[in-house]
Amino acid sequence: MSKIDLAKFGLTSRFETVIREFPQNSAGRVLSQEKGLYRVITECGERIAEISGKYRYQITSPSEYPAVGDFIILESIENSNRAVIHHVLPRKSVFIRKTAGTNCSEQVVAANIDIIFICMSLNNDFNLRRLERYLSIGWNSGAIPVIVLTKA
Predict the structure, then answer these.
(1) pTM: predicted TM-score of the whole model, two decimal places
(2) Cα-atom radius of gyration of the chain, to the nearest Å?
């Protein structure tokens, strides 16, 4: 079986230097997350992963949980497509929003983003103030926002 090149998934030398600190484990990138399970891509293919109990215990805020786009250190379980996440690598950029409801905590939508496309229609619903808010969130994430105007 051929190995998957994680560079095609955004792995750069910036992350590889941190990965070398964990020689016993492998690296991966979170593709999706649902109900505490993460679908990750590794050199050996896709895996279903969950975070280790030790890492769960060390987490102090919801934003420290893995998010889509995060590069992670994981340990694959033999003879299975399962894995255990032990560490989340430092993020290059992070897109955060307030969680729904009355709770004032934050929710990470995606991490390690290069470009954010902000799509707005030029119909009666166009709102310049909303566009300014979206631009502000985009710049604060560390990514480069691009405005796409539709229905001209």
Answers:
(1) 0.84
(2) 18
The DSSP-derived string for 54-108 is HHHHH--SGGGS--TT-EEEEEEPTTSSEEEEEEEPPPS-EEEEEPSSS---EEE
Residues 52-103: pLDDT tens digits? 999 999 999 888 999 999 999 999 888 888 999 999 999 999 988 877 777 7
Pairing of strands 115-121, 26-34: unpaired
**Tokens coding 77:** 């379980």
Residues 6+ away with beta carbon under 8 Å from 22: 73, 86, 87
Residues 15-39 pLDDT 10s: 878 888 887 888 999 999 998 899 9
Parallel/antiparallel/unpaired status of strands 37-42 and 45-51: antiparallel
Structure tokens at 87: 């560490």
Question: Which run of H or of E encompasses 15?
Answer: helix 13-19
Could you give the CA distance from residue 117 to residue 142 in angstroms, rounded to a whole number?
13
